[in-house]
Amino acid sequence: MATNSTARTYCALIVFLAGLGAMPAVAQIPAAAGSSDEGVRTPPGLPVGGFRLHPSLNFYDGYDDNLYRTNSNQLDTFLVTINPAFTLASNWGEHEFEIDGDLTQYLYRNATDENHTNFDVGGGGRLHIANGWVADGRASYTGTHELRTSEDLPQSAVSPTRYTVLHADADMVHARGRLSLRIGGRYDEYTYDPTKLVGGTLIDNSDRNRQMYEGYVKADYEFSPGYSAFLRASYDHRKYALALDRYGIDRNSDGYRIDAGVDMLVTRLIEGNVFAGYSVQRYNAPLGNIGGLDYGVKLTWYPTRLLTVHLNGERTIAETIIANAAADDEKTISGEVDYAFRRDISLLADAGYISDHYSGAGRTDETFQAGTGAKYFANEYMTGDLHYQYSQRRSALTTYRYDDNTIMLGILLHA
Fold it and tell me: For strand 402-414 and strand 133-145, is the pairing parallel, antiparallel, or unpaired?
């Protein structure tokens, strides 16, 4: 990365690391929920009036042996990511407010067209209203890029497609005894830049610009301390900026979901939720409707004080621009194990499976991912992170198959 700005960044990091590394080591392994480990400390942050500021700076250096995720003419490269971020949270007591932001710069040694910068800024809070009502809300604005694994990014694209997301959500919850009722909604607006192809051709992506609205109601019943059964119903509307896409298809749709499940609220051994139900997304002809079993699981299990297990899975009906495909019917399942090998060293292993079925296009992709790594908690201000990731995709279309190996070494600085 032979640029002056990158060189200055390296120098600043060395100075910052030297100062933080000289601080006394403090145990940083997070304690399991319900444990009484009083030796664990977290970064104290900086007082700012009635708020507390938590800045951070993450720096990663790594290697990717298949940058473009192709099955031929693979390009390997070294890369650097630089990620400053902050959180400013209130310490008011009853009411809460927080703003946060981050910026991530990606620099590639021998693929400068791939260099890009992502950002995210947002804020939200909680307001306790009279008679047991509580209101939550958040808004954010994100500028990001499509991944090279995206089915909507042409393999001949010179660089990833840039797009922005404007997001807002709000809800109100009322609890009385063991019963609670939550009513809420969300809004997302996607705006895409054109995609430049090899040879100079530009693809206009205005037919991908869309607005998505969702409203929901959720009822909970706490049948045991820390455990609540719930019933949730939601409706969404997806409206595109253009009446017809590049293939002459109307992609507007409406959908609903009805789910029942259990919330586990920070119990001593397990927390998270699991649910199942039915969902359907309705499209105009010639696109077909997508429906069936809806499910989700997000659990964190603490079998011992040293071992933490995460399990995640869901079915998502995501938008796509693939010809004749109504949507990406995506099913995912993943797990991660975190073992506190020592008070200052944590070992990790993860694996996941993703099935993407593009209904109507005759294409199904299956992706398997597995990785391993370690974190070294030098003190409450500095963490070292080493991670290796392998991913493999197999597709009905051979041109979309790939294997990839990535290894990243990082320094995480936080206050």
Answer: unpaired
Tokens of 123: 């804020």
**What digits encode the pLDDT tens for the residues 157-205?**
999 999 999 999 999 999 999 999 999 999 999 999 999 999 999 999 9
Please give the structure tokens belonging to residue 255.
């959908």
Q: How far apart are CA 401 and CA 182, in angstroms?
A: 43
Q: Bin 112: left if φ > 0, else alpha if -120 < ψ < 50, else beta.
A: alpha
395 within 8 A of 368, measured Cβ to Cβ: no
SS3 for 108-138 is ECCCHHHCEEEEEEEEEEEEECHHHEEEEEE
CATH C-level class of 4-414: mainly beta
Q: What are the pLDDT digits (tens) for 12-27?
A: 444 333 333 333 333 2
Side chain identity, residue 366: E
CA 221 to chain centroid, in Å, comes to 29
Query: How far apart are alpha carbons 358 and 362 in whole angstroms?
Result: 7
Give the pLDDT confidence of 284-325 residue by residue, as tens digits: 999 999 999 999 999 999 999 999 999 999 999 999 999 999
Indicate if the alpha-carbon torsion angle 30, 35, 38, 39 is positive or negative: negative
**Other Cβ atoms within 10 Å of 285 Cβ, number:** 7
Tell me which DSSP letter residue 289 carries.
Answer: P
- pLDDT at residue 327 tops 80: yes
**118 neighbors 160 (Cβ within 8 angstroms):** no
Average pLDDT over residues 206-217: 98
Residue with tokens 């021998």: 110
Instruction: Name the residue among 382, 374, 372 with its Cα closest to residue 342.
Output: 374
